[in-house]
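Lab notes, practical 5.
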Amino acid sequence: MAKNKTDYAYAVARIRSKELKLLSASFLEQLLSASDCESCLKLLAERGWGNGSGETPEEMLSTEENRIWELVEDLVKDTSVFHVFLYKNDYHNLKAAIKELHHRNGFPGIYLEHGTLSPQVIRKAVSENRFSDLPEAMQAPAREAYTALLHTHDGQLCDVILDRAALEATYQAGKVSGNEFLALYGELTVAAADLKTAFRSCRTGKSREFLTRALVPCDTLKLPELTQAAMEGTEAIGKYLENTPYREAADELKRSPSAFEKWCDNLLIRKIRPQLHEPFGLGPLAAYILARENEIKSVRIILFGKRNQLSEESIRERVRETYV
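Output from the prediction step:
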């Protein structure tokens, strides 16, 4: 990734025009105020989302996800610089393939596109028990998760093994990228995941052994202290947070579980906003990818909230901050 900032000058100029089409907080409020899911789809279609009328929410969201990476491939010759964003999809697909084989049944729609590997490659490696066909970093966790599910039938254990591996891959990719923005992404992704895991584990009474297996080391958290706090209770987690870069999360923890998890997800968006003012470099491109993923997540929350007839306030408290 040893590129000059100006190598991305044209791409950043294109991204600036695309940023004008990102969804604002006021538009999300329009969606929240809409009477039903169909009304939301119509508003989104008027903003250029999807491929036309008659789409389901799933089809519209899939179209928008595809557009992110179609744009990236158009702007950047070597898209491997963005693999740090894709490892989560690889490990999701690995998890899906192992569980599909375990249940000996196909499940439509369980695989995600836009990974560093095609879902077919992962599925074939798992179905033939040829984990050596996977990238080296995936081989050990794939075998471990496969064996764990085979012998214990514990789907959660399988999830923990592969979720940890995905976070480790993301963190390592950020570290070795040589890019400050991607390193920040890796750090914040792992830190936010650790905080949410500690909080959920505390509320559900998970063991210290579980936390030791699930939490992933990063520079901004001391895992022994976080683990001990999680064993003691949510108040102890709040006190621990007050001595970390994430002290603001302590107040959200006092408000509600959903407020805390929302804060964790919003953290990354807040940290990447300065890229709106960067004229060169990889950062604005990477931030745009994250901004689009974030707005798709918020739209998904709204659409499925409307479909399931949740109250407007209930949906609103789950919607994430916007980039613009």
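Observations recorded by the TA: The chain has a mean pLDDT of 93. The chain is about 65% helix and 0% strand.
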